[in-house]
Specification:
Layout (H helix, E strand, L loop, with lengths): L5 H16 L5 H21 L3 H23 L4 E5 L5 H9 L1 H7 L12 E7 L2 E12 L2 E9 L7 H9 L2 H4 L5 E4 L4 H9 L3 E5 L2 E7 L2
Helix pairs in contact: 1-2, 2-3
Length: about 210
């Protein structure tokens, strides 16, 4: 291609992948993409006879594999922590992450008296996310905000809430969750969590039936 040897293209591609990995806010995504980049760079190094490049990137790839194995195999602690709607830490949390929240929930504005359910999601006792929802019909909750901070965006919190812990909502008398989404990444997340699109009062919603 354009007179560039194929192996050089591999080297450029490896460099690009590693640069992309450095842009990831999630440590897990960083490690996964960096593993691909370092593995490709190792192949490039060995093929062109640059042993230091090949050996160094093989070492980096092994470190990434070890980290990912540990991340996916360790047992983690999750917990729902219900809080008051005027909780001062909640208000500080929403203010600190306001710009990131608006990327996924355009127009979001916190109104203290609006929510029926308000809780933090703890991961190994660290606050990893926030969930706000209000009752909009009998047995139906509308999710106004389901936000996870960048460091924990690996779907584990979503699986905990929407798969392993659905009884939390059922025991409170709810059988349906619904929300709207204007963000492609958020829509992919909802689909992965078992939501489907459904028209409600002339507007498209993402809906999850629990019973």
């Amino acid at each position: 291609m354009f007179g560039i040897p194929f192996i050089e293209i591999v080297g450029y591609l490896a460099s690009l992948i590693i640069m992309i990995s450095m842009l990831m806010s999630s440590i897990l995504r960083l490690r996964m993409i960096n593993l691909l980049g370092s593995s490709t760079f190792a192949v490039y190094g060995f093929v062109i006879g640059a042993l230091p490049v090949g050996i160094l990137n093989t070492f980096i790839a092994l470190i990434n594999i070890a980290y990912l194995y540990k991340a996916f195999s360790r047992k983690e602690y999750f917990k729902i922590l219900e809080i008051r709607r005027d909780n001062k830490y909640l208000l500080a949390f929403l203010d600190f992450y306001s710009k990131d929240i608006l990327k996924y929930f355009p127009g979001f504005k916190y109104v203290q008296g609006m929510n029926t359910i308000t809780f933090f999601i703890l991961r190994n006792m660290a606050v990893a996310g926030i969930f706000l929802a209000r009752e909009v019909a009998p047995q139906t909750l509308y999710i106004g905000l389901d936000f996870v901070i960048p460091e924990y965006r690996d779907f584990k919190l979503g699986n905990y809430i929407y798969s392993r812990n659905l009884n939390f909502f059922v025991e409170k008398g709810y059988s349906k969750l619904c929300t709207v989404s204007q963000n492609n990444s958020h829509q992919k997340y909802l689909k992965k969590m078992g939501f489907h699109e459904e028209e409600i009062n002339g507007e498209m919603h993402w809906v999850k039936q629990m019973v």
